[in-house]
Amino acid sequence: MRARYLLCICLVLVVAGSQAPVLGETEYFAVFMEGKKVGHAIQSRVVANGQVTTTEEVSITISRADVPVSINTTETSIETTDGKPLGFESVQQFSMMTMKASGTVNEQGMVNLTVTSMGTEQKSTFEWPSGAVMAEGLRLIQLKKGLKEGLRYAARVFSPGILQAVEAEIYVGAKQNVDLLGRVVALTEVVTTIRMPGAGEIVSTGYVDDNLRLQKNIMPAAGLQVEMIACAKEFALGENDVLELVGKMFLASPVPLENVSLVKSITYYLSPTSKAAKLMIPSTDNQSVRFKKDGSVVVTVDPVAPPVGVRFPYKGRDKTILEAARPTRFLQSDRKEIIDLARRAIGDTKDAAEAVKRIEAFVGDYVENRSLSVGYASAAEVAASRQGDCSEFSVLTAAMCRAVGIPAQVVMGIAYVKDFAGFQDRFGGHAWVRAYVGGKWVGLDASFKGAGLGGYGAGHIAEAFGNGAPEDFFALINTAGQFKIDRVIVNKDR
User: Fold this and answer.
1) Are 8 and 481 in contact (CB under 8 A)?
2) Cα 399 to the chain's mean position, in Å?
3) Which of 67, 194, 242, 428 has the most C-beta neighbours closer than 10 Å?
4) Do 42 and 27 meet the contact criterion of CB atoms below 8 Å apart?
5) What's the rounded Cα separation, in Å, for the pair 72 and 93?
6) Can you list the alpha helix ranges (DSSP code H) found in 82-134?
7) For residues 158 and 360, what is the distance between their CA atoms, to the nearest angstrom?
8) Can you tell me the distance from the alpha carbon of 349 to that of 329, in angstroms, rounded to the nearest whole number?
């Protein structure tokens, strides 16, 4: 599941490092995590025929249990020379999987969007976010504001990668000497605070020259220190170091836990690992959360059982629940292959509780190759490849639930594992599903079910949930790797 974190990091790096290069130049950056070179970034800006085309690419490769995983995002914005948005394109590549989104903005401020995956197009329209700019519009704002120390201003920035606008607050700090891979240069500090819906604040510190060209950017994300440093093309595109993330994916359990899928509930006492950490743990039907004044959090996970006798499809009018029943670019529940799999899974049952249990078990068996090499695939891609890790199990499970009219969302958080890749008694980053049955969100874990671990249980702590798209999980950047588990109390009575 750490691949999802990496995708979020790539997308945020594009927004946070969006100081565009000067006309006609292409600028190269090396990307570091935890001090190791893991990839590169490329920025270019071209003006032709009254249009400005800005392209920003971020590519990262890491290792998960000695299996390389690559994430590549490329965002292109097309604007007038005065910063008016005309169109955009985003390409997200996850190992062998590719998803492309392209849009044009008409005179009425409506966006015509096309999302392409596995040769299939999904078309839709939406209104351009009021006041939002892209790369050139932001560059013009920054040029107008200048680099006076102490200056603070705001901008609304549309990200083609997440197909929404984010609020950015920019603060200009002092000029200081900055180390650029051994070369010390006087640069101005620019702190950008990005506010994303449901994700809190993501803060990055950039250093720019007098022409506002970015030379270095530092951002803490998902418990990792991420840096982007301007350098020669040869070094940026050169060989990467090997950063093994499996060990960084786990939290030690204070005590070994037995048969966690069978216990009634577990209470966890969590504490932040730094003063800056802000734990964003949601309360749900399956877990209650209590925030304490000292910054620590008490989470009690008490899984609800799906009520029997509830028929599907969902007939209610709740907008949030209806949203969780619709197809999305990652949960293509309207695709024939997804619908066919869902019908195979549920058989002749009319009971929603029985249907979701059957889907959970079906997906647990259907995904044959538990491959860590898949960066992040959509439900349709998983249906075709039958491979992946917990993320792939989850998007397919959620899409199949939606295909038969049962609202479902992808959940991300941590889950207890007795043994994984040589680590014992740990909580690791994980993805699963919650389905809406009879007024309750019910947990499903096809990955654990297929592995003989019992499925969803009290060993799961949810951190975020949504429609399977990367932007749903930006909250993890502020939460993942930012806390430890101090104490665990198990209630075995059912």
Assistant:
1) no
2) 18
3) 194
4) yes
5) 5
6) none
7) 37
8) 28
Rg of the chain taking only CA atoms, in angstroms: 23
Beta strands 97-105; 120-127: pairing state: unpaired
C-beta of residue 113 within 8 angstroms of C-beta of residue 124:
yes
Q: If we measure between CA atoms, which residue out of 83, 85, 73, 81 comes closest to residue 15?
A: 73
> Residues of 445-476 as b/e, b for ≥16 C-beta within 10 angstroms?
bbbbbbeebebbbbbbbbbbbbbbbbbbbbbb
Nearest to 95 by CA among 363, 369, 338, 448: 369
> Helices 352-366 & 390-403, crossing angle to 10 degrees?
140
CA dihedral sign of residues 401, 404, 407, 409: positive
Of 183, 178, 139, 192, the residue nearest 12 (C-alpha): 192
pLDDT of residue 1: 45
How far apart are the C-alpha atoms of 377 and 432, rounded to whole Å? Answer: 14
Segment (H or E) for 486: strand 483-491
Q: Which residues contact 489 (CB under 8 A, 6 or more apart)?
A: 266, 267
* DSSP-H helix ranges across 332-464: 336-346, 352-366, 379-385, 390-403, 446-450
Cα-Cα end-to-end distance for the chain: 31
CB atoms within 10 A of CB 121: 9
Walk along the chain (494 residues) in steps of 10 and give the mean pLDDT of each run.
Answer: 58 64 77 90 92 92 73 93 96 79 95 86 92 94 94 94 90 96 94 77 89 90 84 94 70 90 94 79 95 93 94 94 94 95 97 97 90 70 88 95 98 88 82 96 96 93 87 68 90 73
Q: In angstroms, rounded to a whole number, what is the distance separating the alpha carbons of residues 9 and 126?
A: 26
Domain topology for 250-491: C8orf32 fold (3.10.620)
Of 478, 413, 2, which Cα lies nearest the Cα of 272?
A: 478
Distance CA 256, CA 487 (A): 11
CA dihedral 460, 463, 465, 469 (to 10 degrees): -110
- DSSP code at position 305: P
Cβ contact 160:76 at 8 Å: yes
Collapsed DSSP state (helix, strand, coil) of residue 248: helix
**What angle is formed at CA 152 by the lines to CA 151 and CA 157, rounded to 5 degrees?**
130
What residue spans define the domains of the chain?
2-236, 250-491
Question: What whole-number distance in Å separates Cα of residue 332 and Cα of residue 122?
Answer: 9
User: According to DSSP H, which parts of 82-200 are helical?
Assistant: 135-145
SS3 of residue 238 by DSSP: coil
59 with 74: CB under 8 angstroms?
Answer: no
Cβ pair 200, 458 in contact under 8 A:
no
Q: Please, which residues have CB within 8 angstroms of residue 423's CB and are 6 or more apart in sequence?
A: 246, 247, 250, 417
